[in-house]
């Protein structure tokens, strides 16, 4: 043991310096490693334990050694080695199960398998290996948040060793965590966890060589603030940053409350990766992303560019934007359905005043950051800061298609909320799932579409039992979250009267989609069919326009069905009989009249009409005979 001190073993330097163990804790791990590496040490431990079956370090034998070799008091050394000591909590050692009759001082310890491999192979890397989901972010040349805020927060962190960052989303507090590491020239270890419990404390305590930034948003939503966990971790780390939700009570722990990332902060985040210029400014207007997300999107865009044969440098803004959108869609997971579409306003057949309103929605969203930053209207509004819209009208009138056009015009994803995945029978789970959906959409990754929203935003029922009470709580939560939501949310309904009036008052735009008139139906029929070169000569759409008052969705279905019927024939031309058969099936599907009188002169092309006419002719011929 004395020779070990003279050799300046790197293992001792790691245990004392990097991992912060005490002198006694360091000797405990060193002796456990010696037992693994040298058979004579294992034999010596058997003698000290006075048990030929034990070849490992026992607390009593360890305490006697430290008394003899280092003059450490017996009780202090014994308390270090008994179950629950720092080295064991950090996962360096593991306790061997023995019969319950054994006193704690006789229960042996040994190196964990990972530590044994490390020391037997002589491998001591700069960063501790871990089973955690850790993203290592190098320091940035620029800070995303204001320097005065970052330097003040860093001073508190250096003094206290623990700093809680409280914000509405983990994205904002994560950016400050990155800045806290960058201002000190450190690597940030982002420990992400979506679990309802904090990560394994032993794994976190072994993160050295950088600043651990631990996300506790999910853990604090379902259970109290984990003070015992924080006390344990903070005793073994020189500094740790904790990300907590806006409603977390952090007690006496030092805490910084953060607003959402404003336009200037977002611009600095993108400038840290792309430098000053139009690329950073354009991306900052569209996305509320932290630096780690921007870096990940930039790497993915560069990889895709190289695979397509492009240059390995100079990633374009649209490539990064596409990756940020894809990144957001993956984070949504099964909670939503991502509707991909290239629809544009020119494809939308609606009255002119509706088209003008949709264009106004695009301008409203794009101008919102400037209104809040430059025009002094950043305070709370009676309608909130988000852009919520209601699209009402009969089925097939273009409500969902209009939402797709909006998403394409703004360059955003369109997420349709899957109520079967969001609404849960367990209390509180619905709110948690919706919070995650809103957070990702708010980052600029997409527009939220609540299709048939009256199922979720309908009139609140009279409370007759516990189920009604909690259903009303979910609606109330949605109302509150929609008010604070800064993105675009679109609600569609077939019956506006089914919507809760308290919610309707909070909407920015309410659009009523009417059934199409004759001129609109003409355009819809033409757009739903293949190009005119694929029409049979003399095909006239006027009888269909005049006779059938159908919505655009039904007309589109008829066009697709008629195209398939035409494609099954040799010449592949759309004929009037194809349109009649497709129309008959669509009317049957939606429950509208489909008699011969409804079709008029077109009835000769109805299914079965030719056979019926031939049968009547045969009867007439037999009568004449």
TrEMBL record:
UniProt-listed InterPro entries: 26S_Proteasome_ATPase, AAA+_ATPase, ATPase_AAA_core, P-loop_NTPase
Keywords recorded for this protein, A-Z: ATP-binding, Nucleotide-binding
GO molecular function: ATP binding; ATP hydrolysis activity
Gene3D superfamilies: P-loop containing nucleotide triphosphate hydrolases
Superkingdom of origin organism: Bacteria
Domain AAA+ ATPase: 385-513
Matching PANTHER family: 26S PROTEASOME REGULATORY SUBUNIT
Matches recorded under SMART domains: AAA (SM00382)
Biological source species: Corallococcus exercitus
Protein name: AAA family ATPase
Family the UniProt entry places it in: Belongs to the AAA ATPase family.
């Amino acid at each position: 043991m004395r020779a070990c001190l003279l050799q300046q073993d790197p293992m001792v330097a790691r245990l004392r310096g990097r991992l912060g163990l005490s002198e006694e804790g360091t000797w405990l791990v060193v002796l456990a490693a010696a037992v693994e590496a040298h058979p004579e040490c294992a034999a010596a431990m058997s003698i000290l334990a006075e048990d030929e079956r034990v070849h490992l370090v026992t607390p009593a034998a360890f305490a006697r050694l430290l008394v003899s070799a280092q003059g450490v008091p017996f009780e202090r050394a014994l308390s270090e080695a008994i179950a629950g000591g720092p080295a064991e909590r950090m996962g360096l050692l593991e306790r061997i199960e023995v019969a319950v009759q054994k006193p704690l001082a006789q229960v042996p310890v040994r190196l964990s398998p990972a530590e044994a491999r490390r020391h037997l192979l002589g491998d001591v890397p700069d960063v501790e290996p871990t089973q955690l989901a850790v993203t290592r972010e190098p320091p940035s040349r620029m800070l995303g948040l204001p320097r005065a805020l970052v330097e003040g927060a860093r001073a508190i962190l250096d003094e206290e060793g623990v700093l809680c960052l409280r914000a509405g989303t983990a994205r904002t507090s994560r950016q400050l965590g990155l800045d806290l590491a960058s201002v000190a020239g450190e690597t940030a270890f982002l420990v992400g966890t979506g679990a309802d419990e904090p990560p394994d404390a032993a794994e976190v305590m072994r993160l050295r060589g950088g600043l651990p930034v631990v996300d506790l948003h999910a853990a604090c939503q379902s259970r109290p603030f984990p003070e015992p966990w924080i006390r344990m971790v903070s005793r073994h780390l020189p500094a740790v940053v904790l990300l907590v939700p806006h409603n977390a009570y952090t007690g006496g722990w030092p805490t910084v409350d953060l607003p959402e990332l404003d336009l200037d902060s977002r611009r600095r985040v993108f400038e840290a990766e792309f430098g000053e210029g139009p690329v950073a400014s354009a991306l900052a207007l569209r996305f509320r992303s932290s630096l780690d997300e921007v870096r990940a999107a930039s790497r993915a865009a560069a990889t895709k560019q190289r695979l397509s044969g492009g240059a390995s440098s100079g990633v374009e803004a649209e490539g990064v934007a596409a990756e940020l959108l894809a990144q957001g869609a993956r984070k949504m997971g099964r909670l939503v359905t991502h509707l991909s579409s290239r629809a544009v306003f020119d494809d939308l057949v609606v009255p002119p005043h509706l088209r003008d309103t949709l264009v106004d929605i695009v301008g409203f969203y794009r101008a919102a950051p400037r209104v809040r930053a430059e025009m002094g209207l950043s305070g709370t509004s009676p309608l909130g800061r988000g852009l919520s819209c209601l699209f009402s009208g009969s089925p097939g009138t273009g409500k969902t298609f209009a939402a797709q056009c909006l998403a394409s015009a703004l360059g955003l994803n369109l997420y349709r909320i899957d109520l079967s995945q969001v609404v849960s029978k367990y209390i509180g789970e619905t709110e948690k799932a919706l919070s995650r959906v809103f957070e990702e959409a708010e980052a600029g990754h997409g527009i939220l579409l609540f299709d048939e929203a009256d199922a979720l935003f309908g009139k609140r029922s009279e409370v007759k039992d516990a189920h009604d009470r909690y259903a009303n709580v979910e609606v109330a939560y949605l109302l509150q979250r929609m008010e604070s939501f800064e993105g675009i949310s679109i609600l569609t309904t077939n019956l506006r009267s089914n919507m809760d009036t308290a919610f309707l008052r909070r909407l920015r735009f309410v659009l009523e989609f009417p059934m199409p008139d004759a001129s609109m139906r003409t355009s819809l029929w033409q757009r739903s069919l293949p190009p005119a070169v694929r029409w049979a000569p003399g095909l006239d759409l006027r009888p269909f326009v005049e006779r059938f008052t159908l919505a655009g969705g039904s007309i589109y279905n008829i066009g697709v069905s008629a195209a398939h019927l035409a494609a099954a024939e040799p010449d592949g031309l759309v004929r009037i009989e194809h349109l009649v058969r497709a129309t008959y099936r669509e009317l049957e599907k939606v429950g509208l009249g489909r008699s011969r009188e409804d079709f008029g002169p077109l009835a000769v092309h109805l299914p079965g009409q030719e056979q019926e006419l031939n049968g009547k002719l045969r009867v007439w011929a037999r009568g004449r005979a």
